[in-house]
Amino acid sequence: MNYQNAKTWPFVEAKKVLERLGGKKPEKGYVLFETGYGPSGLPHIGTFGEVLRTSMVRHAFSKLSDIPSRLFAFSDDMDGFRKVPDNVPNQEMLKEHLGKPLTKVPDPYGCCESFGHHNNAMLRRFLDSFGFEYEFQSSTDWYTSGRFDETLKKVLVHYDAIMDVMMPSLRAERQATYSPFLPICPETGIVLQVHIIKRDSAAGTVTYPDPHSGKYIEVPVTGGNCKLQWKVDWALRWAAFDVDYEMSGKDLIDSVKLSTQICRILGGTPPASLTYELFLDEQGQKISKSKGNGLTIDEWLAYAPQESLSYYMFQSPHKAKRLYFDVIPKNVDEYLSQLSKYDTQGEAEKLDNPFYHIHQGKRPNAIHSPISFNILLNLASVVNSEDPAILWGFVSKHAKEASAETHPYLDQLIHHAVKYYHDFIAPHKHYKLPTAVDQLALHDLVVELEKTSPDAEEQALQTIVFEVGKRHDYPELRAWFGTLYEVLLGQKEGPRFGSFIAIYGVHETIELIKSKI
Questions:
Q1: To the nearest whole number, what is the mean pLDDT of the chain?
Q2: What is the pLDDT of residues 170-198, one digit of tens each?
Q3: Is the separation of the CB atoms in 268 and 259 below 8 Å?
Q4: Domain boundaries in the chain?
Q5: At what angle do helices 497-504 and 458-470 cross, to 10 degrees?
Q6: How far apart, in Å, are the Cα atoms of 261 and each of 166, 177, 236, 267?
Q7: Is the pLDDT of residue 293 over 80?
Q8: At residue 99, does pLDDT exceed 80?
Q9: Which end of the chain is more exposed for a tag (fewer CB within 10 A), N or C?
Q10: CA of 63: how far to CAs of 4, 23, 362, in Å?
Q11: Distance, CA of 72 to CA of 508 (rounded, Å)
Q12: CATH fold of 1-138+277-367, please?
């Protein structure tokens, strides 16, 4: 298979990594991909997306090169706890620990060693459930174990050059106290943002005025006694690990530029990168860990299979996308559509199909559905049922070979459709009263369907619906289909109507129409 000609963005990104390497194996013996996570709040779906997308690039790289690779999922869990998230319990308790490293803040859920450990565990659970191959790395572990010490000493040696990079990016009041080093107060355990009044590169120490006593305190920059400001910290990781690839969001463009300069000052080579657009909530606002807006991974997976989430993340990383419940059905069906194409494509075409990247070129045999998710949602809507068995009764008449045992993926979709219907469709159903024009058209449709075989094919049924709509006084066919959805289903949008009739049944559809007119 000619991977060099693949055009999808994971292959484009993988080629950037090869270009950075000059086609040669790095001295460390492998290519390093990295993702970053700040566990100041519960991990949101954007964090998962970064790991998924990076894994796709890593897989594409493995097809272009035989150089071994690793993926670090790095948690900045030594960062100071600056704000209590809105979506966690025990808010008052957490306020008492503001400023401390996240791995020193008590877990508000009472199940882990700290708030940082709790959020790290959640992230790892999410990543493990998707089968990602990664190595979890903790900032606290790296700082306190001394593994960052040599690079921290370089930061101290190049202190002035790093300050020259950072100072123009800061407001005047921040410039007065800014330092790359954040000492950890030995008494309170708080990560201090204080002015450094003295540096000793030979001894590897910095001196700062204690904010409480005013006394000058000298501490080593090594051994976990200090943490770095995050832009410098990012550059530290790039240099210390020799990171070859790391993507980041559009909101970090300026930070990438600063960290790139600092990485070079430390003697490192900045990684190849992709800048992805942001995920937006229902109101078009950037999703945030502290606000808890947007969707969580668990929320998406309550209403759709995990492959649909992977498909959502694969699509158009350079475009901002709404991340809310109403995008789920569309992504489920588009994923199924790509699956259908994949099964008939040649090798070259498959490389450009999202399905290839979601499943790393392996076709899971169990994933198959003869019926779209949208049809299932509308079926649930018409029968007003929250019982999967009732939906199966209609489905099995249409797809006679299908059952929960033979089609477990379809069974999963049916259960998801029932839950989605209950939570998002049923509460908002609003039926339109048919107008005089609607009454005539719907009566005409009944007459035509009564002439039709109960076993009519979907396309034949769709043609009947089209022809009836054309015969009546609608400005466009879209208005006719809107009438069908609003009068019969109680919603603004709906499925391909011929497909719906085929599954729901010709006789049942006739009775449904009669009940509305």
A1: 94
A2: 999 999 999 999 999 999 999 999 999 99
A3: no
A4: 1-138+277-367, 373-428, 436-516
A5: 120
A6: 10, 21, 11, 10
A7: no
A8: yes
A9: N
A10: 9, 14, 13
A11: 55
A12: Rossmann fold (3.40.50)
